[in-house]
Amino acid sequence: MVDELAERIGEAQAIFAVDYKGISVPQAAELRTRLRESDASFKVVKNRLAKLAAAKAGTEDIDHLLQGPIALTLIKGDPVVVAKTITTFARENDILEYRGGVMDGAPLDSDTFQAIARLPGLDVLHGQLVGLAASPLTGLVAGLGNLISGLGRQLAQMAEQGLVTGEAPEPTAPVEEPTPDEPPVEEPTPEEPAPEPEAEAAEPEAATETSETTETTDDTQED
User: Fold this and answer.
1) Cα gap 116→102, rounded to integer Å
2) Model confidence pLDDT, tens digit, residues 194-206
3) Would you state the CATH architecture of domain 2-123?
């Protein structure tokens, strides 16, 4: 019995020492069934034998816990799930009291045990991580699907309205660019008449002088 218990203690990732005072045989059987689902075992042995097995396995950190009605929960699976199972069973039946334990070679007090019992199990954490990793990719695929389906609906509506015929559009005539306006042609202004020569302008004066000479001659003749 000591050899078998020492082997189980050596293989365990965590050990929970529980005060089982007041537990009935049916309740113990139910608890063993729940713990077996989490790859853990519930062992009730004499404290003297448990100390021998712990010493043989090299796990003497639990010697101070082996006092009174103590049962050892030897865990090979997920310690968080086992802590949840023990906490839930103790709350439902108002029995069992956690006394202490070790996990990964380190002591585990009551407060740390209760904190572990509130954590999600490895399976739950793994599912959450997978969901977080897949959610961006799922959103991208959904977004692309919605975009493609929306584009298809728009093209179908355009085809129903005759906006999409599949034929190339007729070429349109190039638009002629306006040429710059030519400057207006200036019409020639009429030239002013040239002034008459000075000789022509002096003719009336010569005629006047002749007339005055003639009159003077006539006056002389009369005298």
Assistant:
1) 13
2) 455 444 444 444 4
3) 2-Layer Sandwich (3.30)
150-189 burial by CB neighbour count: b if 16+ within 10 A, else e? eeeeeeeeeeeeeeeeeeeeeeeeeeeeeeeeeeeeeeee
Measure the CA angle with vertex 5, ends 3 and 8; round to 5°.
110
Q: Which residue has the tokens 């005060």?
A: 19
pLDDT, average across residues 135-154: 58
Could you tell me what percent of the chain has a pLDDT over 90?
43
Residues 6+ apart with CB under 8 A from 96: 18, 19, 20, 23, 31, 86, 89, 90
**Which backbone phi and psi does 109 adopt, to 5 degrees?**
-85, 180
Rounded to whole angstroms, the Cα distance separating 102 from 79 reads 11
CA-to-CA separations, 123 to 13, 33, 74, 81, 211, in angstroms, rounded: 17, 20, 20, 9, 151
C-alpha separations of 26 from 30, 31, 44 in Å: 6, 9, 14
The ranges assigned to domains in the chain are 2-123
- Token digits of residue 212: 């005055």
- Regarding pTM above 0.70, the answer is no
Q: Residue type at 213? A: T
E strand intervals along 10-153: 14-19, 40-44, 70-75, 97-103, 106-108
Q: Which of 8, 110, 10, 1 minimizes the C-alpha distance to 60?
A: 10
More confident residue, 140 or 145: 145
Neighbours of 91 (CB within 10 A): 10
